[in-house]
Write a sequence for this structure.
C-alpha cells in the first residue's frame, strides 16, 4: 500500500497543474469562439479539436520533438532558463494539458454561448467596457460551465496515457501516474495482485469528476 | 439493424476479422534486443521451408510472458532472461525440460553521440552530468534487472537507481540515448556495437557482468508445435548461431 498514495498524489498534482495551464487559454478561446467572428475561425476550431482525435502517441511524439532535449524549444529552454521538461512531472502535466484542452474550451464556449447577448448589450448601454461586461455579466452567468469544463479536463488529464508515456516516460516517483502504473502492473508478470487499488482509484476519481461536472451543468440550466 | 445491406456488411467485416491465421504460419515472440537477428533468422527459416511465413512480435520479455500467459497465439518464445521462461514453465505454458539457451550477451555503457567526455567506469555514473541513465525498467524488463544486478554488485544501486530513466524494453532504452534524452544508458552489447547513433563508452568489467542468457522454448498451446520445434532447433544450428554471432551475440556456454 506504500506505493499507492504517492502515485495518487502525483496524478492529482499532474492533472491539477494541467487544468491550471489550460485555464487562461480555455477562457480566452472559449469566449472568442462563442462571441466573435474572425478570419480563420473554422481553422482555429479544427486545430482545437485535433488533440481530441489525433492519437495521443502522435501528440506525445510532437511534444518530444518540440520540447525534448534536442527539440527546437527544448534546446532554448535548457540553454536560457536551464529548464528540462522531457521525462519530468512537468512533461506529464504539459502532455495532459494539451490533450485535455479541447474539452475545457468546448465547455467554456457552450456556457458563454448560452448567455443571452441582450444581457451583455444592456450592460454596454450602461457604459460598461468589454472587460466589465465579461466580469459582471458573462462570467457570473457562465461560471458553472467553466467549472464543469475544468473538471472534465481534470478527469481527462488523470487518464492521460499515450502522450505522457512518450513525452514523460514511465518513471516511478517522477512521472508514473495512475494509468502508467496500471499499464506497468498489467504487463508485469505477477503484477495483477497489486492492480486493484489503482483500477478502483482511477475509476472513482474519473467518476466523481464527471459527476460533479454534470451536476454543475445542470445547476446552470435549472436557474 | 434496419438496413439489411448494412448488417451484411458488418457481418462480413466481423467474419473477416475472425479469420484464423494461415495454418502454416509461425508466430515468434522475441525479446526486443533480438529484432535484427530474429528478423534475419525468420527469413532464413522461411526460405528453408517454402510456403511458410513467420510472424514476429517484439517487446520486453516480461511483457511477452504476460501476453503468453493470457493465451496470446505464440508458437515460440525467445526471452532475454531465463526468468520469464521459467515463469511460464511454472504455469504450464512451456515444457521446463525443453528450454534451450541460444545466446549470451554482455552489458555495456552507451553514450549520446554528441557527448564529448565519456564515462570510463561504472562509478563515473555517479556524476550528475551523466543523468538520467537510460535502461530497462528494473522491476521487470530483463535489461533493467541485469543492470540492477550489476549496480548492486558494484555497490552503486542505492545511489544510482533514483537517476535511472526506465524504458519499456531494451530497444527503447537505446532509442532514449539515440534521441539525446539521456546522456548515457546501460544496454546490451549487441545493440551498441555497429550502432552509428550511439557511442560505446565501455563494456562492464567481467566481475560485474550478470549471466545474460537468451532462452528459446516452444509454447504448449502452439497449433504448430512441430514447426515451432524446428525453429527452435534452427536457432541452435550452425546457420542460426552464425547469424546471432554476426549480430554480436555470444554463443551459449558449453556445459
Amino acid at each position: 500500500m506504500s506505493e499507492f498514495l504517492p502515485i495518487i498524489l502525483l496524478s492529482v498534482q499532474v492533472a491539477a497543474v494541467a487544468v491550471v495551464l489550460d485555464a487562461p487559454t480555455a477562457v480566452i478561446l472559449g469566449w472568442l469562439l462563442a462571441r466573435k467572428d474572425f478570419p480563420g475561425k473554422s481553422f482555429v476550431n479544427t486545430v482545437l479539436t485535433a488533440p481530441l482525435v489525433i492519437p495521443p502517441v502522435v501528440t506525445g511524439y510532437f511534444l518530444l520533438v518540440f520540447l525534448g532535449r534536442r527539440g527546437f524549444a527544448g534546446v532554448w529552454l535548457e540553454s536560457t532558463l536551464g529548464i528540462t521538461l522531457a521525462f519530468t512531472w512537468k512533461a506529464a502535466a504539459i502532455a495532459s494539458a494539451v490533450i485535455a484542452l479541447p474539452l475545457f474550451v468546448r465547455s467554456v464556449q457552450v456556457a458563454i454561448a448560452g448567455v443571452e447577448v441582450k444581457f451583455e448589450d444592456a450592460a454596454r448601454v450602461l457604459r460598461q467596457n468589454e472587460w466589465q461586461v465579461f466580469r459582471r455579466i458573462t462570467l457570473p452567468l457562465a461560471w458553472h460551465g467553466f467549472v464543469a469544463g475544468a473538471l472534465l479536463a481534470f478527469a481527462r488529464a488523470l487518464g492521460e496515457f499515450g502522450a505522457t508515456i512518450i513525452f514523460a516516460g514511465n518513471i516511478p516517483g517522477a512521472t508514473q501516474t495512475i494509468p502508467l502504473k496500471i499499464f506497468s502492473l498489467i504487463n508485469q508478470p505477477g503484477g495483477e495482485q497489486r492492480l486493484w487499488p489503482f483500477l478502483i482509484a482511477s475509476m472513482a476519481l474519473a467518476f466523481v469528476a464527471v459527476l460533479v461536472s454534470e451536476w454543475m451543468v445542470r445547476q446552470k440550466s435549472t436557474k | 439493424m434496419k438496413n439489411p445491406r448494412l448488417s451484411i456488411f458488418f457481418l462480413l467485416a466481423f467474419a473477416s476479422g475472425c479469420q484464423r491465421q494461415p495454418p502454416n504460419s509461425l508466430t515468434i515472440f522475441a525479446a526486443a534486443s533480438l529484432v535484427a537477428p530474429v528478423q534475419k533468422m525468420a527469413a532464413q527459416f522461411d526460405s528453408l521451408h517454402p510456403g511458410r511465413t513467420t510472424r514476429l512480435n517484439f517487446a520486453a520479455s516480461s511483457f511477452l510472458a504476460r501476453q503468453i500467459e493470457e493465451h496470446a497465439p505464440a508458437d515460440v518464445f525467445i526471452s532475454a532472461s531465463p526468468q520469464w521462461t521459467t515463469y511460464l514453465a511454472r504455469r504450464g505454458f512451456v515444457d521446463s525440460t525443453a528450454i534451450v539457451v541460444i545466446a549470451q550477451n554482455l552489458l555495456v555503457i552507451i553514450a549520446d553521440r554528441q557527448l564529448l567526455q565519456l564515462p570510463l567506469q561504472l562509478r563515473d555514473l555517479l556524476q550528475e552530468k551523466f543523468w538520467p541513465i537510460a535502461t530497462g525498467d528494473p522491476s521487470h524488463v530483463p535489461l533493467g534487472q541485469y543492470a540492477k544486478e550489476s549496480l548492486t554488485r558494484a555497490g552503486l544501486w542505492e545511489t544510482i537507481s533514483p537517476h535511472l530513466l526506465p524504458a519499456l524494453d531494451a530497444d527503447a532504452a537505446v532509442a532514449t540515448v539515440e534521441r539525446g534524452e539521456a546522456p548515457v544508458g546501460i544496454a546490451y552489447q549487441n545493440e551498441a556495437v555497429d550502432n552509428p547513433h550511439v557511442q560505446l563508452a565501455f563494456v562492464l568489467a567481467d566481475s560485474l557482468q550478470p549471466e545474460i542468457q537468451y532462452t528459446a522454448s516452444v509454447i504448449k498451446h502452439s497449433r504448430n508445435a512441430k514447426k515451432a520445434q524446428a525453429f527452435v532447433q534452427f536457432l541452435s544450428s550452425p546457420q542460426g548461431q552464425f547469424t546471432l554471432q554476426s549480430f554480436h551475440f555470444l554463443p551459449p556456454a558449453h556445459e
